[in-house]
Amino acid sequence: MTQPVLEGLRGVVFTESKLAFIDGEKGILKYVGIPIQELAENSSFEETSFLLLNARLPNKSELEEFDAALRSRRVAPAGLIELMRMFPKDLHPMHALRTAVSSLAMFDADADNTTEAGKLEKTYNLIAQMSTIIAALYRLQQNLEPVAPRADLTHAANFLYMLHNEVPSPEQARLFDIALVLHADHGMNASTFTGIATASTLSDMYSSITSAIGSLKGPLHGGANEAVMDMLEDIGEVENAEAFIGAKLERKEKVMGVGHAVYKFFDPRSRVLKEYAAVVAAKHGESKQYQILNKVEEVVIARLSAKGIYPNVDFYSGVVYSDLGIPKAFFTPVFALARISGWMASIIEYTRKNSILRPTVNYIGPDEAHWIPPEQR
Length: 377
What we know:
Blueprint: E1 20-23, E2 28-31, E3 34-35, H1 36-42, H2 45-54, H3 60-71, H4 78-84, H5 93-104, H6 116-141, H7 155-164, H8 170-183, H9 190-199, H10 205-216, H11 224-235, H12 241-250, H13 268-284, H14 288-304, H15 314-323, H16 331-351
Antiparallel strand pairs: 1-2, 2-3
């Protein structure tokens, strides 16, 4: 007996969550009931991570304790750094990150501990060390020595410091912190679902996050911000934008950074990032990319808004990352750096009442077939 097929699992509800609320029709995103705009303006990545992991905001002492725990765990295993030195220099950073995170299990004698306490231990380590790993990958690919983390810097400032071997300005650190908060969670997206699916088998946290990273790599998910910057390079000048996008739509090609599986209105994260992209453009007098994006947005809204298609979080994030000196190839690893908190929180939440994920399919093959010897085929 066949059942209705819901393509891409659209509309399928398989669990409950206290973490992220999304109203795609109205363009609303909340973490544990708090609007994303409030968190972007007032919170930090450390506080947002605590919020997702505990489904509540911390008090002052709890936040200080959580922050101290993360700062104390930033140093990645020396053996992992040595292993990363052997990676090919032209390896895509997401391949490298996936391999590095998977390899972390080799340096953890308690890697298979899937108790709640064990998962939290892995969570703190992974949140703290993801930035160290990504910064080291970048520097090794540039034939530079990795920069050791500093415990006196915030999570955002420490990453930029390890990337460039230079302490960022308070404005740069805050801008990156906001980007991390905006990307920390987004409900049951493909990578979160993939991580949960792996964890539902009672596999270890390293396997679950490795699975999530593999899912995030795709250009329809985390890789979209990289594709947006490629599109800007192809457009070249503001005056080319309308014809370029028009031709893409005529060919029924996807405009990267536009449209979302959930939002049928503006992605609220894109509105926050647009404001900061404008500040970046004005501050440095390098507004061409921002102007091109504005023109593309104008064309997209005129042509596609009736279908509920608007810019998403990837649309402006690349411009912000570029201003912070983050190379295009590392945009998606930086997405993972932010999303690690949401992945971990969702996995821990789901596995408290765990049920192995086992969807079904409608079989559409032949009713009856038999094996035939090769010479008779």
